[in-house]
Each structure stands twice: as C-alpha cells, then as structure tokens.
Amino acid sequence: HEGMPYCEIHYHAKRGSLCAGCHKPITGRCITAMFKKFHPEHFVCSYCLKQLKKGTFKEQGDKPYCHGCFERLFG
Amino acid sequence: MIADGHLVGDGSWELKVLVTDLSVERCLRVKGDLHIGGVMLRLVEELDIAADWSDHALWWPARNCWLSRTRSTLDQYGVQADALLHFTPMHKTLRVQLPDLRYLD
Predict the structure, then answer these.
(1) In terms of C-beta distances under 8 Å and separation of at least 24 residues, what long-range contacts does B27-30 make, across chains too?
(2) Bridge partners of residue B9, in order along the sequence
(3) pTM of the predicted model, to two decimals?
(4) Closest chain A residue to B39 measured between Cα atoms?
C-alpha cells in the first residue's frame, strides 16, 4: 500500500476493505452500505440476522434492518 | 428531582421483562408512550446477543395475552409498573396424539 509493506489485515484496514461485520478482509464480492463495507453474508438484519440485499434494508440507529423487522420494531 | 439515583416525576417507571430463553429478568426504564416494538428493540439491544429474535414477542402472563400489535403503546395495552412481561418465542413445540394414538411432536 503506497509503497509500504503491510500484513494482510492492516493492508485491508488502510484500504478500507475490512468487513464491518466480521472485521476480516473482503477479497470477493462486497456490499457497501451506510458508508461501510461488508461481506454479502455479513450484511444482515440486526434483529432476525437474515441476509440483506443492498437497497432493500432500512436503517435505524446506525444498524440495518429488513423491512419486516423494521416494521415490527419502529412501525 | 432525583431519588434513589433516578430521575423521578418524569412519568417513567421500571418495566420488568423475563427473557424465557435465557431465564434472565431485565428492568427497562420506560414511559407509557413507548410502543411495544420499542420495548423489544431496547430489550434486544440491552441483551446484546447476536441471535435471531424474529420469532420472539412479548407475552403478558397476568392477562394471558400476546402484545402483538407492536405499534401500540404500553398505555394503550394498559401495561403499568406492576406488570411482569415475558419475552418468549411464539412458536413452541407441541405434542399431539393422533386418533391412532401415535404421538407427533
């Protein structure tokens, strides 16, 4: 990264490509939401833990929720 | 006004909720205008356990009813400070004996 050697974790930390769910590097597919990056399988509803697809989630208090759970909790 | 380390006179009170899965009781400081969904959210955030809570709902043993209308407030359900609620899964196992006397779970 910028000519300097880093271990894998710190390289990805510098590049901002650590998953906000599991804090491990993202190498394959990546979801960007709420100004963070996630492994697709770690971008989940905060209440039912089911996987969220980008663009079909609701945000409340800096946490993502699926529509069903959002409706129940905040409706 | 502060009494016992709490602000009193603001209309808030302690709501006791038993989380049946964990057998723990939690006290939430609430006001009557808090809706049921808000109670569930506060509870789950306070427990801070990553689990699928989507099948859980609030059960009011004294009235024998689910608080399933999550948009309704504690006031609308008539829940007051003397109430104990359960936070428990809605789907439970049930043993059924069929006409041929077999049991199904």
Answers:
(1) B30/B74
(2) none
(3) 0.78
(4) A73
